[in-house]
Design goal:
This is Sugar (Pentulose and hexulose) kinase. Keywords: Kinase, Transferase. InterPro entries: ATPase_NBD, FGGY_C, FGGY_Carb_Kinase, FGGY_N. Belongs to the FGGY kinase family. The relative contact order is 0.13. With 540 residues, this protein is of the alpha/beta class. Helix 3 crosses helix 4 (141-150), helix 11 (323-338) runs antiparallel to helix 13 (398-409) and helix 15 (442-451) packs across helix 18. Among the domains are: 3-259, Nucleotidyltransferase, domain 5 (2-Layer Sandwich); 323-409 and 505-532, no CATH class. The mean pLDDT is 94. Helices cover 39% and strands 17% of the residues. The protein is built from 19 helices and 21 strands. The chain starts with a helix and ends in an 8-residue tail after the last helix.
């Protein structure tokens, strides 16, 4: 049988997997075969809004985006294979981690969705970190809840359930209030021994005077953690209609535990084993290093989360990364259109990225910049003000401008990665993924310089989280004889995957270090901009 015939048979018999991820700017759906080969995909662009001082997404947009991405995928299947997609073997949903979706006992949303991007939970983060002796970043769901308690928000007394975006979608489609352990570990600390929420910390939180005024117990309003390969429910008839309003999709699909984008990134890069690591670059940027031993100290810039199987992971997360890089690229695209040169995105990025690599000074010509669209946790900047800063004698060229924006996308996370280096956290490999790596070599090479380590990019680097979620769904449906996730990935998914590894070059490493000196020294400019330019209602 030809590849086309194999895929047609898979679709006709329902031997396919669906993975959907709700990213910061795109909701993407991917359909794969049992071997993980992508058959079709669909996407929907969406945006967060800054309302009443908080970053949020409308829940109406959640469902509009999901249905639109699925409809596009379904149309692609019908166009390419002449088949209507009706039966799916297994599926899973992932999304941005952390944040706060709180519901009452009538399943009514109590306050607008508060995303990971909000840097408004500083007091809660500090107090819980001190209480637990464990870093609780501002993004974490428990920090959002505790800050609402500290602020005496009236909705808190009515909470019956709170979860993440992935957990919410899964709940609505299956009726199950569960969460993949990786995503759950960004809500409340997980005990690596039990694979459940840390009971000692549950007790500590429950005994806080401010918490004891409420009728609910924290363990009762959190979703139940599930591990990769666990059963997490089935698509209900109502859920099938919610996903595919045409009524074509059959109910009863096996649904994997919903995961966060960090977990799907680990799966998509085959980085779930001890001493492996990956880095994901998008609106935010985060690295994940699977630990072989605990860190010696608690660090405000290092999250301890888990893999989808519950292994402890050191996560360095920066709120801002490639947004400003994309904004400047769009500016050049607009100019190209004005002079009659309508470039494809691939050609545009190839041209601009090549200039950053081949036509730029090692340190980006003395330029400095901050692509901060929101507050940045690692550098303690409370709000976002995208800035380009140069001195009169800076070498202001397109190559240096683009090199600056690529460097800036890696700036904040470099600070956290230095901590891991000082802790002697070892990795055998760091795999990178994200849209910036679709343009070959450039971002990969400059990231290698930024981290001063080898960086690997797989041939599927552009597939990312939704593909990783589809793989987790396949594992949930196909787990045989107790096969571990690591073995399943190595033998069934990545056995023949092509990859390219690049080592850092001394010139680029030295140039990035010069840039980082300016980046750190210039943070006061960013803080001054916040005071001088009051925040408007931002829509990115």
């Amino acid at each position: 049988m030809t590849a086309q015939q194999i895929q047609e048979k898979a679709i006709a018999t329902g031997q396919v997997a669906l993975g959907v991820e709700f990213g910061s700017t795109t909701i993407k759906a991917v359909l794969t075969t049992n071997s993980g080969l992508t058959i079709a995909s669909g996407s929907y662009d969406w945006t967060n809004n800054f309302q009443n001082g908080l970053w949020t997404y409308s829940l109406d947009d959640v469902w509009l985006g999901l249905q639109s991405a699925y409809r596009q995928l379904k149309a692609q299947v019908e166009s390419k294979y002449g088949l209507k997609l009706k039966k799916i073997k297994t599926m899973g949903f992932s999304a941005m981690m952390h944040g706060y979706l709180a519901f009452d006992n009538q399943d009514t949303l109590l306050v607008p969705f508060r995303t990971w991007r909000n840097a408004t939970t500083g007091r809660a983060s500090r107090e819980l970190t001190k209480l637990f002796g464990f870093n609780v970043p501002q993004r974490w769901s428990i920090a959002h809840l505790y800050q609402a308690i500290l602020d005496q928000e009236t909705h808190v007394k009515n909470i019956s359930y709170f979860t993440t975006l992935a957990g919410y979608v899964h709940w609505q489609l299956t009726g199950e209030k569960v969460l993949g352990v990786g995503d759950a570990s960004g809500m409340f600390p997980i005990d690596a021994e039990t694979g459940n929420y840390n009971q000692n910390m549950i007790d500590q939180f429950s005994h806080l005077k401010a918490v004891q005024q409420y009728q609910w117990q924290i363990q009762d309003i959190l979703p139940e953690p599930r591990h990769a390969g666990d059963m997490a429910g089935h698509l209900t008839a109502a859920g099938a209609k919610k996903l595919d309003p045409t009524g074509d999709l059959m109910a009863g699909v096996i649904v994997a535990p919903p995961e966060g984008d960090a977990g799907t990134g680990m799966v998509a890069t085959n980085s779930t084993q001890v001493r492996t690591g990956n880095i994901s670059v998008g609106t935010s940027i985060f690295s994940m290093i699977v630990l072989e031993k605990s860190l010696k100290h608690v660090y405000s810039n290092i999250d301890i989360v888990t893999t989808p199987t519950g292994l402890p992971v050191a996560m360095v997360h920066a709120n801002n990364s490639a947004s400003d890089l994309n904004a400047w690229s769009k500016l050049f695209a607009e100019f190209a259109g004005m002079i009659g040169q309508n470039l494809s995105n691939a050609a545009l990025y190839q041209t601009l990225f090549n200039a950053a690599l081949n036509d730029a000074d090692a340190d980006a010509g003395g330029l400095t910049g901050y692509g901060y669209y929101s507050g940045e946790n690692i550098t303690a900047v409370p709000e976002g003000r995208p800035l380009l800063v140069r001195q009169p004698d800076s070498h202001f060229t397109i190559g240096n401008l683009m090199r600056l924006h690529i460097f800036s996308a890696f700036g904040a996370i470099k600070i956290g990665m230095r901590i891991l280096a000082d802790e002697n956290v070892l990795t055998d490999n760091i795999v990178a993924q994200g849209g910036v790596f679709k343009t070959p070599i450039v971002a990969q090479k400059l990231l290698a310089a930024a981290l001063n380590t080898n960086i690997t990019v797989m041939a599927n680097a552009g597939e990312g989280g939704p593909w990783g979620m589809a793989i987790l769904a396949l594992y949930a449906a196909n787990k045989l004889g107790g096969q571990t996730l690591d073995d399943y990935l190595a033998k069934n998914i990545f056995a023949e995957t092509k990859a390219q590894t690049l080592a850092p070059e001394p010139r680029d490493v030295a140039g990035f270090e010069e840039f980082m000196t300016r980046y750190i020294d210039g943070l006061q400019i960013e803080l001054t901009a916040i005071k001088a330019l009051p925040s408007n209602q931002i829509k990115e």
